[in-house]
C-alpha cells in the first residue's frame, strides 16, 4: 500500500503536533460550554478521534454522513444526507469536524442546515484546507494545514475507499489512478 505513495505531504508527527495545538485552542474556548462535536463521515474519523482526546472539556459527539463526491475525485456540487445526526442541535454550541474543505459545497450545506436547526453557534474545524478548489464562500474557523490543489489521501482521506488508514497525508502516484 505504501508503495502507491508518491510523496508524503504531512508526516504523522506533524499531524499529531497540529492536533494537540488545535485541541488546546478548543479547550480554552469551550471549557465551560459542553459543545457538540459533529464529525463528518467517513473522512474525519481519525482526525476527530485524535482531536477529542486533546480537548480537556466536557463534550458530546455525534457523526453525520453526507456525500458531495462520487467515488472519484470531482465535486458534484450536490450534497446528500446519507446518515443524519441522532442529537438535537437546537441551542447547542456545535463544532463541525471535517477532513478537508475543497469546493466548500459540503460545509456550506451543513452550516446552512445547522443554522436552520437553530444551533447556538457553529465552528468549523478542518484538518486540511484547499482554498484553490473553492466554489462557494466558506471559511474554516480553524484549519490544520493549507494544501495545494492536488488530490491527497491518508489519515481518513480515501481514493475509492482505500488509503484512509495511512497515518500521514500523501499524494498518490499517477499510475494508481490508471489501474
Ligand atoms: P467539498 O464539498 O468541500 O468539495 O469537499 C468535501 C469532501 O470531498 C471532503 O470531505 C472529502 O471527503 C472530499 N475531498 C475533497 N478534496 C479531497 C482530496 O484532495 N482528497 C480526498 N481523498 N478527498 C477529498
Ligand atoms: Mg469529508
Ligand atoms: Mg472520499
TrEMBL record:
Its annotated compartments are: Cytoplasm
> Tell me, what's a Pfam family for it?
Pribosyltran
Residue span(s) of domain Phosphoribosyltransferase:
14-159
Name the top EC class: transferase
Cellular component terms per the entry's GO annotation? cytosol
Pathway as given in its UniProt record = Purine metabolism; IMP biosynthesis via salvage pathway; IMP from hypoxanthine: step 1/1; Purine metabolism; GMP biosynthesis via salvage pathway; GMP from guanine: step 1/1
Q: What does this protein do?
A: Purine salvage pathway enzyme that catalyzes the transfer of the ribosyl-5-phosphate group from 5-phospho-alpha-D-ribose 1-diphosphate (PRPP) to the N9 position of the 6-oxopurines hypoxanthine and guanine to form the corresponding ribonucleotides IMP (inosine 5'-monophosphate) and GMP (guanosine 5'-monophosphate), with the release of PPi.
Q: State the family named in the UniProt similarity comment for this chain.
A: Belongs to the purine/pyrimidine phosphoribosyltransferase family.
Could you identify this protein by its name?
Hypoxanthine phosphoribosyltransferase
What is the protein's species of origin? Answer: Alkalicoccus halolimnae
Q: Which gene encodes it?
A: hpt
Amino acid at each position: 500500500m505504501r508503495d502507491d505513495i508518491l510523496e508524503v505531504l504531512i508526516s504523522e508527527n506533524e499531524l499529531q503536533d497540529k492536533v494537540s495545538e488545535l485541541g488546546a485552542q478548543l479547550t480554552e474556548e469551550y471549557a465551560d460550554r459542553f459543545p457538540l462535536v459533529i464529525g463528518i463521515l467517513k473522512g474525519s474519523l481519525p482526525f476527530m478521534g485524535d482531536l477529542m482526546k486533546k480537548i480537556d472539556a466536557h463534550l458530546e459527539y455525534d457523526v453525520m454522513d453526507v456525500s458531495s463526491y462520487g467515488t472519484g475525485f470531482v465535486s458534484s456540487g450536490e450534497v446528500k444526507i446519507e446518515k443524519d445526526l441522532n442529537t438535537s442541535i437546537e441551542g447547542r454550541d456545535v463544532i463541525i469536524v471535517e477532513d478537508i474543505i475543497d469546493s466548500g459545497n459540503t460545509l456550506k450545506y451543513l452550516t446552512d442546515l445547522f443554522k436552520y436547526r437553530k444551533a447556538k453557534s457553529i465552528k468549523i474545524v478542518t484538518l486540511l484546507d484547499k482554498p484553490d478548489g473553492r466554489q462557494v464562500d466558506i471559511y474554516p474557523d480553524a484549519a490544520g494545514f493549507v494544501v495545494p490543489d492536488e488530490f491527497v489521501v491518508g489519515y481518513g482521506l480515501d481514493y475509492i475507499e482505500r488509503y484512509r488508514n495511512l497515518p500521514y497525508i500523501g499524494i498518490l502516484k499517477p499510475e494508481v489512478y490508471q489501474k
